[in-house]
Structure formats: structure tokens, C-alpha cells
């Protein structure tokens, strides 16, 4: 089996990690040169990227194309919020998908992601238009008022008071950009109707529960429902993990063709963590889990939660959701509460107990904090190689959706390789690299090393600080990762790259 992966940009979590998960499933991967992809500093080379995809599809026998559409439409996720290309030009790029069907002998399936443009509640213009540094929070508040006005909850006078805080030319530019992207997303839904796209995830990045982005999502879902596309179009908060989820859903389709569906039981530690508000998502952690499981193609078994009648014959995977009464955050944002220290000692004991008693393969979703793992839990795991050995999936990074989507996909890939007799030395190594990477990034870097770094930290300082943690992870996993190289791929401390170099 061979898959073509076109990521959102060149970050490790979007470019490297999905391919690593696919390798753990025993799937051959074709991906574009990283130099063609977009980054924080430049857009993707769109024409060259589309040309490369056309040639690759003509020359390879592909089973599926899994694509983050923002790359070929706007040059990447970040440039989708910045680029000035007209809707007509973007629609022309979108039509490339129809040509892929025509030019390929194998007619590969197309699983796609498109994003609803985010609205950030801050004054950081690193990933936005330049005026965000002055009017970011005003635009966020104005967007919420526009949403409430659409719902009949505020009057024109309230809206006028918010609009006076933002210059007219900026409001017009912002609405023009949003409308263009929304128009293109409507065309993408039409491609699902026309069966050019087989499955679509409409991701909503960094979202509250009100705003123009929420309104657009509601309209796109309403259109999908009217077209009868409920089983082919999904939408939920997330972005960077969506290619992992699309890969997982495609693997499950292959698995389901045998007449058996992967079934998962979810256990929350503590139980009320399901009702905990999920930061940056505008919904609860339980709601995020449900949407991620559905999009990943896993059957979500809930009846066992209340009866406790678990059987290895009925459950394939136990998903353990490690949380708390309130979700912490390893990042302190101006004007918001400091949630960098949350007391999770009781929850850690409960989670460890659940792992000890588990009789099925486990996926551990560490959502006690946003922007990194729960260090108390991770350090307990590092001391228990027997528990790490039970895990077929683990993550604890960034948002709840990022964590759940990538952890589920890793588990699905591992189980797929085992159940379809693809497990071998190569898939074992790829799987171990997945778990190692998440522990290295989510625990070692985000919770232990990053707090010690300044914004202008050097690679040498990073390598020196993280080395002992990487050694501990390898020893606990009984895994020799080989030569490791660490870097800041976007020249900032927000993301880390752990590169496995063959000896």
C-alpha cells in the first residue's frame, strides 16, 4: 500500500510526524521535498508543488492522497491568513484535484483537510497580518459581537461601539480575506458532493465558542448536511494533527473492509475531566474526544463505561484520558490566569492504576495541560518501562485535539500493522520513534527544557539541556534511537524538532 502525503507546511508535527505514523502501519509513503513546503517565513512554492504532485500521481501506483489543501491553495496554513491571491486563482488551484482523478490509472482516494481561518485573542502578528499587533484583540471581540448579532443577541448600537475601535480599512480587509476563504471552503464541500474528495475534515484552529470562524463552520456543516455528506465531512477544533487523523480513518477503512471495526473504550481520569473546558477549543475535553474518535474511524464504545463489563473480545483499544478538574497551560498568556502549576497528584495515581489494570492495548492522551504533558505523569511513566510497553499511542502536546488526534492515529497504525501482518523490524522502529518523539517533545522539551530557555536560545544550549532527558526516555523504552539531532525548525522556541539520523 502506498500513500501520498501533502502536509500543511514544513513543521515536524505536520511534515515529519504523519509519515512516521504511516511507516508504523507498514504503509509506503511518498511526500514532496521539504523545500517546496511553506514555513513561518515564506509560502510554499505552489506551482512547483502542484507540478510535483501531478508528476508523482502519474508515475506511482497510489492507494490514497492525503492532503492539507491550504498548502496548494494559499501556500500553507499561516499564509492562508495573509495571502492576497484572488478567489478565482485559488479556485483554479483547487481544480487540480479533478485532474488527479483523470490522470491517474489507479484513481486513488483523496482524503483532504481544509481550515476555517482562525481568530487569535492576542496582539501577536507573527502568524497574522501586520495590523494584528495593534488590533488583534479588538478584532477578536468584534468577531464575537458579529456572531451574537447574527444570532439576534445584540443590537446595531453594540456592534457600532466595537467597530469604532477598529479602522474601517482594516475591518474591510479582514472581512474580505475571511469571505474569500469561506467561499473556497464552500467549493471544497462541493467537491465532496461530486466525489472528487472522498473524505474531508474542516478544521477550526484555535477557536472559542463564538465568532466569525464558528459561524462559518456552522454554515459549512449545514451545507454538508443538506447535501447528505454527514459520513464524509467532519469538522472540529484542531489543525496540526488532522493529517494524522485522515491517515487513521483511511487505515480503518482498509481494516473495516474485513468486516471488523476497531473498537475503543474511553476512560477519563478523573471522570469529570470529560466535562472540563478545553483550552483554545471552545468545547469540553469529552466533546473533543468524541469528535476525534469519530473522524478517526474508530467505533466509540460507551456502554462498558458504566457496567465495567470489559472484554478483550469486544474492545480493541483502551483510551485513557489523563486530565484534571481544570486544564492547565504551560504557557502564560498576558491578561490570563497562571495555570502552569496544576495539582494532578491524585489523577496521576489514578491514571497509573488504570494502566496497571489494563488488559487491552492502551492509548494515553495526556490533556491535563495545554502546550505540553503533565510532568508528574510523564516522570512516573519513565520510571515504569512495563507501563510504557503497554502503550500503542501517547501524546501530550499543544491543544487537546492535537494530543488526541495524534495519539489515536499512532495507536491505530500500530494495531493495523499487527492485525494485518505488517509488523516487522521497520514498523517496530517507526512506532518506537513515534512514542520517543512525543515524550521528547511533550515532556522533556516543553515542560523541562523550554522554561530554561530565552527567546534567543542557541541550538548548542538546547542540545546540552535536553540530552540527559533523551537518554532517560531511550533507557525506559529499551530503545536505541541512534544519532539524534535537535533544532528549532522555525527559529523560535515554540516548536522542537528531534531528527533521527541513520548511522
Report on this model:
The chain has 503 residues and is α/β, with parallel strands linked by helices. The protein folds into 2 domains: 1-120 and 176-240, Rossmann fold; 259-454, Rossmann fold (3-Layer(aba) Sandwich), CATH 3.40.50. It has 18 helices and 17 strands. The protein has helices at residues 12-24, 46-59, 70-73, 87-94, 96-103, 132-150, 156-163, 168-193, 212-226, 242-256, 285-295, 303-307, 345-357, 375-382, 385-388, 400-419, 425-449, 459-477; strands at residues 2-6, 28-30, 64-68, 109-116, 199-204, 233-237, 263-269, 277-278, 283-284, 299-301, 317-322, 328-329, 362-366, 369-370, 391-395, 483-487, 497-501. Strands 2-1-3-4-5-6 form a 6-stranded parallel beta sheet, with helices on both faces. The chain has a 5-stranded parallel beta sheet with strand order 10-7-11-13-15. It has a two-stranded antiparallel ribbon with strand order 8-9. A hairpin with a 4-residue loop joins strand 8 (277-278) and strand 9. Helix 6 crosses helix 9 (212-226), helix 8 packs parallel to helix 9 and helix 11 packs parallel to helix 16. The radius of gyration is 22 Å and the shape is globular. The model is unreliable at 303-307 (pLDDT under 50).
Amino acid at each position: 500500500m502506498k500513500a501520498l502525503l501533502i502536509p500543511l507546511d514544513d513543521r515536524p508535527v505536520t511534515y515529519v510526524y504523519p509519515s512516521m505514523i504511516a511507516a508504523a502501519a507498514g504503509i509506503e509513503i511518498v511526500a514532496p521535498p521539504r523545500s517546496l513546503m511553506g514555513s513561518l517565513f515564506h509560502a510554499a512554492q505552489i506551482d512547483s508543488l502542484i507540478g510535483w504532485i501531478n508528476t508523482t500521481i502519474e508515475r506511482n501506483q497510489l492507494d490514497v492522497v492525503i492532503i492539507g489543501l491550504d498548502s496548494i491553495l494559499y501556500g500553507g496554513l499561516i499564509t492562508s491568513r495573509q495571502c492576497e491571491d484572488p478567489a478565482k486563482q485559488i479556485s483554479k488551484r483547487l481544480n487540480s484535484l479533478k485532474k488527479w482523478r483523470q490522470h491517474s490509472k489507479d484513481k486513488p482516494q483523496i482524503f483532504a483537510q481544509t481550515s476555517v481561518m482562525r481568530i487569535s485573542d492576542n496582539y501577536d502578528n507573527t502568524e497574522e497580518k501586520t495590523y494584528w499587533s495593534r488590533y488583534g484583540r479588538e478584532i477578536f471581540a468584534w468577531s464575537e459581537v458579529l456572531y451574537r448579532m447574527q444570532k439576534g443577541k445584540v443590537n446595531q448600537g453594540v456592534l457600532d461601539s466595537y467597530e469604532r475601535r477598529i479602522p474601517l480599512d482594516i475591518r474591510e480587509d479582514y472581512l474580505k480575506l475571511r469571505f474569500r476563504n469561506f467561499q473556497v471552503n464552500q467549493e471544497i464541500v462541493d467537491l465532496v458532493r461530486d466525489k472528487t474528495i472522498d473524505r474531508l475534515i474542516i478544521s477550526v484552529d484555535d477557536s472559542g465558542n463564538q465568532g466569525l470562524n464558528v459561524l462559518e463552520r456552522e454554515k459549512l456543516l449545514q451545507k454538508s448536511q443538506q447535501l447528505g455528506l454527514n459520513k464524509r465531512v467532519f469538522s472540529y477544533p484542531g489543525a496540526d494533527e488532522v493529517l494524522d487523523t485522515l491517515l487513521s480513518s483511511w487505515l480503518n477503512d482498509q481494516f473495516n473492509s474485513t468486516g471488523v471495526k476497531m473498537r475503543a473504550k474511553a476512560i477519563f481520569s478523573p471522570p469529570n475531566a470529560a466535562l472540563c473546558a478545553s483550552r483554545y477549543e471552545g468545547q469540553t475535553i469529552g466533546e473533543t474526544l468524541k469528535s476525534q474518535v469519530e473522524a478517526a474511524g474508530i467505533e466509540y464504545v460507551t456502554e462498558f463505561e458504566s457496567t465495567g463489563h470489559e472484554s478483550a473480545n469486544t474492545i480493541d483499544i483502551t483510551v485513557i484520558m489523563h486530565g484534571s478538574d481544570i486544564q492547565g497551560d504551560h504557557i502564560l498568556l498576558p491578561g490570563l490566569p497562571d495555570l502552569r502549576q496544576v495539582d494532578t497528584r491524585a489523577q496521576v495515581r489514578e491514571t497509573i492504576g488504570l494502566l496497571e489494570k489494563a488488559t487491552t492495548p492502551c492509548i494515553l492522551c495526556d490533556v491535563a495541560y495545554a502546550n505540553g504533558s503533565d510532568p508528574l505523569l510523564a516522570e512516573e511513566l519513565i520510571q515504569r518501562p512495563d507501563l510504557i510497553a503497554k502503550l500503542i499511542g501517547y501524546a501530550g502536546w499543544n491543544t487537546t485535539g492535537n494530543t488526541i488526534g495524534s495519539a489515536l492515529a499512532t495507536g491505530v497504525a500500530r494495531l493495523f500493522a499487527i492485525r494485518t501482518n505488517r509488523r516487522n523490524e521497520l514498523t517496530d522502529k517507526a512506532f518506537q520513534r513515534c512514542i520517543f518523539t512525543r515524550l521528547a517533545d511533550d515532556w522533556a522539551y516543553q515542560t523541562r527544557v523550554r522554561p530554561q530557555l530565552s527567546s534567543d536560545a542557541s541550538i548548542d544550549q538546547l542540545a546540552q539541556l535536553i540530552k540527559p532527558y533523551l537518554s532517560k526516555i531511550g533507557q525506559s523504552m529499551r530503545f536505541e534511537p541512534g544519532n539524534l539531532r535537535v533544532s528549532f525548525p522555525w527559529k523560535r522556541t515554540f516548536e522542537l524538532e528531534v531528527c533521527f539520523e541513520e548511522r
